[in-house]
Inverse folding.
């Protein structure tokens, strides 16, 4: 097992190098550049800027220089924001997104698994219909609708919670609640549906019939005999979902005015801010690769048939 | 209550009367088991034979009340265990019967044990469900049972997971688990169908030996009449949800009466008779048991079919010594001649 973990961790490095390389070239192949604004810059200015960012060097030289910097942990200067470099923007906003994301995914796991289990165990009763109706809402209604609806109810009508803001910006800890609930909704829905179908499948399996034939109580059958098997698909789903949610959501950040990482995914692309794009891609990939690694470990802990050597 | 129960008299350990189990499907009502009756006595081994889909598993899942509902439902009949109707028991009374008085082993040992739990966990919990013993005592008992079914190095192997055992070994574990509470009835639903031919005989022999040793009554479900000959005292032949012939094993072989039984016996490979190239096999498919009109369900495949077979289900005729057959060939023609 230890050997396997070390081997997997070492395997992460080439994966990341490939991802960085591909994104480095792809962003530069896309039409347009960081300095193609609506008004064309004067020729001299443009040439000066391009010289400053070494944009006139052969691409392969730029790539080599960039890789060298990245390996030292420097994601380079932003092509658009002059005040700080990419590291600054990412590491200033990432913790906010992570805090929000972790809270949101915890909420969706807690409620998603609970309601999915209840729905499966009480299949075709009102419990089932209610939780699946909620799940359908969560899947089909976009965040930019759910967010404002929650704001309207809890902030404007009931006045229990602030409309927007963020605690690091002096908004108080309560500012987390509404965006976390909003963000939790979509994953709650998916987790609830996954749990329900996976639980139903498990409950139909031969070994559950054996457990019943032994005279076990349904509660023991559910918790002792069904849970582990039913959780496997949820664990697989959670890896990528976790990586996605803790790297921020543009929509939720916009609606609740949160200084998170999500907006950089969109803005950097619009701006053709090469280094910032690749920077956020690297951060996302690192988190995703680590999450997938954790998923594999958890999987092997749940399922004795999987052994890693 | 318990005294009253103990004093209650009954003639058979298990008595199934007019059992009907139907499934509601989109295509219509599947009459999987349609009015069957049989009895089982202490220490007896009863074979239930029939093609796939004839209702053997549904019969036995009904006895355990393990029919998935919906879509399934036991719509009529009674299942008397020691004189008491299982169909009238509460959930908790039922749990006392399951695994304790009547236990079951299934066709596919690869999927019937929980892959996520150690054998020890699964065996100990079974024993402790029905007996007031400590974990340690239950473990000792489990190991003893594993040794009894011939698992080598049982003390160590018991802590393994199911996937660490071969198919045959897993079926042995299932048998050990099923017998660990000294059940009075063991239902074995095609226990060897999923196994290698070489292992099949060993497993059947094991069931036979242990049931003799523990005086357990056995219901052995199979689609192989050859297996029945070697093991069973009595045989029920099922076809399309009905028992078409029932007899002591010896009588059934000596005088197979229903044309279907006759065909089944003909299709068993035999070493003592020269085979003229190919085995006999019953032509045609078993009928769809959805919306079956009144008729002998075997008539499309029967060589001796008569007009009446196509319009009425044949009455059951007792040929003596408990040998019963449902076929117009044996019905009193006079009784029905006006029809
Ligand atoms: N859950 C179910 N839903 C619908 N039909 C079923 C179900 N289980 C069994 N049946 C039907 O009942 C009939 C008898 O099945 P079964 O008892 O499993 O046959 P076998 O003799 O092979 O054990 C079959 O026609 C089968 O399609
Ligand atoms: S009742 Fe008629 S069709 Fe059915 S088995 Fe007997 S002879 Fe054949
Ligand atoms: Mg079957």
């Amino acid at each position: 097992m230890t050997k396997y973990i070390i081997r997997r961790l070492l395997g992460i490095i080439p994966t990341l190098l490939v991802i960085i390389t591909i994104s480095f070239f792809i962003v530069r192949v896309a039409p347009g550049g960081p300095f193609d604004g609506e008004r064309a810059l004067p020729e001299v200015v443009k040439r000066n800027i391009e010289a400053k960012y070494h944009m006139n060097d052969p691409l392969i030289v730029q790539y080599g220089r960039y890789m060298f910097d990245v390996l030292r942990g420097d994601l380079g200067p932003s092509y658009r924001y002059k005040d700080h470099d990419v590291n600054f923007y990412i590491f200033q906003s990432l913790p906010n997104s992570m805090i929000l994301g972790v809270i949101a995914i915890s909420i969706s796991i807690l409620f998603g698994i609970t309601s999915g289990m209840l729905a499966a165990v009480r299949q075709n009763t009102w419990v089932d219909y209610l939780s699946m109706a909620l799940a359908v809402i969560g899947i089909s209604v976009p965040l930019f609708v759910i967010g404002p609806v929650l704001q309207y109810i809890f902030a404007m009508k009931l006045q229990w919670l602030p409309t927007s803001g963020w605690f690091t910006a002096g908004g108080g800890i309560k500012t987390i609640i509404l965006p976390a609930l909003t963000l939790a909704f979509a994953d709650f829905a998916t987790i609830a549906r996954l749990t329900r179908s996976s639980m139903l499948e498990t409950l139909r399996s031969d070994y559950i019939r054996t457990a019943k034939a032994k005279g076990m109580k349904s509660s023991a059958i559910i918790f002792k005999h069904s849970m582990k098997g039913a959780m496997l698909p949820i664990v697989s789903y959670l890896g990528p979902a976790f990586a996605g949610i803790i790297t921020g959501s543009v929509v939720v950040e916009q609606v609740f005015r949160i200084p998170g990482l999500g907006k950089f995914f969109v803005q950097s692309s619009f701006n053709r801010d090469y280094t910032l794009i690749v920077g956020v891609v690297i951060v996302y990939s690192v988190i995703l690769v680590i999450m997938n690694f954790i998923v594999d470990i958890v999987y092997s802990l749940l399922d004795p048939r999987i052994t890693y050597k | 209550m318990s005294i009253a129960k103990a004093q209650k008299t009954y003639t058979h350990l298990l008595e199934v009367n007019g059992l009907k189990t139907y499934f509601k499907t989109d295509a219509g009502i599947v009459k999987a088991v349609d009015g069957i009756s049989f009895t089982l006595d202490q220490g007896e081994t009863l074979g239930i034979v029939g093609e796939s889909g004839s209702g053997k598993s549904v019969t036995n899942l009904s006895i355990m009340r393990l029919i998935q509902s919906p879509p399934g439902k036991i719509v009529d009949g009674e299942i008397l265990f020691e004189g008491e109707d299982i169909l009238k028991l509460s959930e908790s009374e039922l749990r006392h019967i399951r695994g304790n008085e009547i236990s079951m082993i299934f066709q596919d040992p690869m999927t019937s044990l929980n892959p996520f739990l150690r054998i020890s966990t699964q065996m100990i919990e079974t024993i402790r469900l029905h007996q007031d013993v400590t974990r340690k005592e239950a473990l000792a008992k489990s190991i003893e049972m594993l040794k009894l079914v011939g698992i080598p190095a049982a003390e160590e192997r018991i802590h393994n997971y199911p996937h660490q055992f071969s198919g045959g070994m897993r079926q042995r574990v299932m048998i050990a688990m099923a017998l660990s509470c000294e059940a009075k009835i063991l239902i074995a639903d095609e226990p060897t169908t999923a196994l290698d031919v070489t292992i099949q005989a060993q497993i059947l022999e094991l069931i036979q030996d242990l049931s003799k040793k523990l005086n357990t009554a056995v219901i052995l479900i199979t689609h192989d009449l050859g297996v029945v000959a070697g093991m069973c005292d009595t045989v029920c032949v099922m076809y399309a949800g009905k028992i078409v012939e029932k007899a002591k094993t010896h009588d059934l072989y000596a005088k197979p009466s229903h044309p279907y039984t006759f065909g089944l016996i003909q299709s068993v490979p035999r070493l003592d008779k020269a085979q003229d190239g190919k085995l006999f096999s019953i032509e045609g498919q078993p009928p769809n048991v959805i919306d079956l009109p009144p008729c002998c369900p075997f008539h499309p495949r029967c060589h001796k079919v008569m007009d009446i077979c196509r319009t009425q289900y044949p009455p059951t005729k007792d040929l003596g010594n408990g040998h019963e057959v449902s076929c117009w060939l044996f019905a009193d023609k006079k009784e029905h001649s006006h029809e």
